[in-house]
Design a protein that fits this description.
Elements: H1 3-9, E1 25-28, E2 31-34, H2 60-72, E3 77-80, E4 86-88, H3 89-92, E5 117-119, H4 127-133, E6 138-146, E7 158-169, H5 170-173, H6 177-186, E8 194-196, H7 213-244, E9 257-262, E10 268-278, E11 281-291, H8 293-298, E12 304-312, H9 313-321, H10 334-337, E13 357-364, H11 376-387, E14 391-401, E15 408-416, H12 425-443, E16 446-447
Parallel strand pairs: 3-6, 8-9
Antiparallel strand pairs: 1-2, 4-5, 6-7, 7-12, 9-10, 10-11, 11-12, 13-15, 13-16, 14-15
Helix pairs in contact: 2-9, 6-7, 7-9, 11-12
The structure holds phenylalanine.
The site of phenylalanine has 11 residues, from strand 11 and strand 12.
Length: 448
């Protein structure tokens, strides 16, 4: 193939993205924002914010959302699915008590629209408004969330979370609060899941002073039984789907097992994570905890206690539907889309496997830090803006310090592999050349 034909295939957006003058304004989901020195949403991310995969009834993410909502309908929850991805730094971080120097706030981890607005990094960004307006004791939020991250088969800069929360008002229940909590725990449908729960540690994972020991225990128990119900529903469906696809692997006959481990989130105390024993390893599934008093009072809920959790949908959907690569969720290829339909958990049948080709890029980092030192996520972004979803993974494969000059050399290996066609060497070389020149221009590295 000639070079000009090869270039014609390269999307326009790929042209030296870092060097383009930044537009004065940026439009996300129909709203326009002024840009500033914080703006770092790239052209490859912007279109993802319009996709709304969780609202597509025939997409694995949408099917999983509906499965969970069906399990919890009639149990006192309102379902919110339409929140837009741009939120304020106040909603995403401040109100939840993130310290000012929390790494999650940095430009290398988060997509900023400008200094005050960003693409939400988690569904907890909507806790404030949901606690304020929710008409039922509890709610579920499902939404797309965004994080600058590495590139591999389980990481994509956009993914989906489902957040749940439940509150009880002391004013409303008065002296009957504890019996109300006990009755609500009893009302949660039972599962035969095996639970490992090392006793709760008051020193390393303390309860809050505004709650009695008994209240904290009951709210924690309600949270744990609720999440066990969710996990039970989803993972038993995954087993059923694998059985129907003909699998006879031994794990299919084992009872489902989960364990509770201590965690930390700035807006919950105590906090936990639930892990599921799946195909021989513990799978982190969901962070959760008892909501901090401050978050509730900020939302106008005085004298209220409650819990919240946030579960990532993409990795669970990969298990449920047997999807090997997270990029497949975003493909527009009919051979993917036509395999799934509303209400059905089916195992994905790969339509073909196209070979991957690796290219290495090696360089010396500048000795004196330039204005913008190269963060690994910047490199990921350059690769993504250049070759988009044709990149399967990017890995740091070598790093050393020159003994005499003290300069640091790094080598990254890019695996180019399309999910729907064969790539030519010429085409890959063009992408790789663009990645190299972009790196050299934007970060003053010396290519090797
Ligand atoms: N938002 C957290 C995350 O993204 C999960 C979480 C939600 C934790 C609610 C506690 C309460 O990891």
């Amino acid at each position: 193939m000639s070079l000009s034909r090869t270039l014609a295939r390269v999307p326009i957006l790929a042209r030296s993205y870092a060097q383009l003058p930044k537009p004065k304004e940026i439009t996300v989901n129909g709203s326009t924002y002024a840009t500033d020195g914080w703006t770092n949403i790239s052209s490859s991310i912007l279109p993802l914010t319009d996709r709304k995969l969780h609202l597509d009834a025939n997409h694995p993410i949408g099917i999983l959302r509906s499965l969970v909502e069906k399990r919890f309908s009639g149990l006192g929850y309102t379902f919110y699915n339409e929140f837009q991805p741009v939120v304020t730094t106040h909603e995403n971080f401040d109100v939840l008590g993130f310290p000012k120097d929390h790494p999650g706030r940095s430009k290398s981890d988060t997509y900023y629209v400008n200094e005050t607005h960003l693409l939400r990094t988690h569904t907890s960004a909507h806790e404030l408004e949901c606690f304020t307006q929710c008409p039922t004791p509890g709610y579920f939020i499902s939404a797309d969330v965004y994080r600058r991250d590495e590139i591999d088969r389980t990481h994509y800069p956009a993914f989906h979370q489902m957040e749940g929360a439940r509150v009880w008002s002391r004013t409303e229940h008065g002296a009957g609060l504890e019996s109300k909590l006990e009755a609500d725990i009893q009302a949660i449908p039972k599962t035969d899941i095996i639970v490992e729960d090392p006793s709760y540690n008051a020193v390393t994972n303390p309860k809050q002073d505004f709650m009695t020991d008994r209240e904290a225990e009951l709210v924690g128990t309600h949270l744990k039984r609720t999440l066990e119900l969710l996990v039970n529903e989803v993972f038993n469906e995954a087993k059923e789907s694998a059985r129907l696809a003909g699998s006879q692997e031994p794990y299919l006959n084992e009872p489902l097992k989960v364990r509770w481990v201590e965690a930390y989130f700035p807006w919950t105390a105590p906090s936990w994570e639930i892990e599921v024993w799946w195909k021989g390893e513990w799978l982190e599934c969901c962070g959760c905890g008892v909501v901090r008093e401050q978050v509730l009072t900020n939302s106008g809920l005085q004298d209220t206690i409650g819990w919240a959790f946030g579960v990532g949908l993409d990795r669970i959907a990969m298990i449920l539907f047997g999807i090997p690569d997270i990029r497949l969720f975003w493909t527009l290829d009919e051979r993917f889309k036509l395999q799934f339909s509303e209400g059905k958990i089916t195992t994905f049948k790969p339509y073909s496997k196209y070979p991957g080709t690796t290219r290495d890029v090696s360089f010396w980092l500048p000795l004196a830090a330039p204005e913008a030192p190269l963060h690994e996520n910047d490199l990921m972004e350059i690769v993504r803006n250049t070759a988009g979803d044709l990149v399967e993974s990017v890995k740091l494969v070598d790093e050393f310090v020159h003994p005499k000059t003290g300069r640091v050399s790094q080598c990254y290996r890019v695996n180019y592999q399309s999910m729907d066609r064969s790539l030519t060497n010429e085409e890959i070389n063009v992408y790789q050349e663009m990645v190299r020149s972009e790196l050299a221009e934007a970060f003053q590295v010396e290519l090797r």
